[in-house]
Specification:
71 residues, mainly alpha
């Protein structure tokens, strides 16, 4: 499905800044499935590419809070 397509599109070692949107979409989908560790990794990757994007920080904070509560 869409998740597989996003993962394939992000398969390179050095994703371009244009991939930040795809990383964020994938992270949100992973978080919705309860795959919080994977969501966190994708959000951290996106933040390394675009550290000033507020929505990435907000989504990461939500994932971290859910992890702290045990999922």
């Amino acid at each position: 499905g869409a998740e597989s397509w996003l993962e394939r599109s992000l398969g390179s070692e050095d994703p371009a800044a244009d991939d930040v949107d795809a990383l964020e979409i994938l992270a949100v989908a992973l978080a919705q499935q309860g795959r919080l560790g994977e969501a966190r990794a994708r959000l951290e990757e996106a933040l390394s590419l675009e550290p000033g994007r507020a929505s990435l920080r907000q989504n990461l904070n939500e994932v971290l809070a859910r992890q702290a509560r045990g999922g």
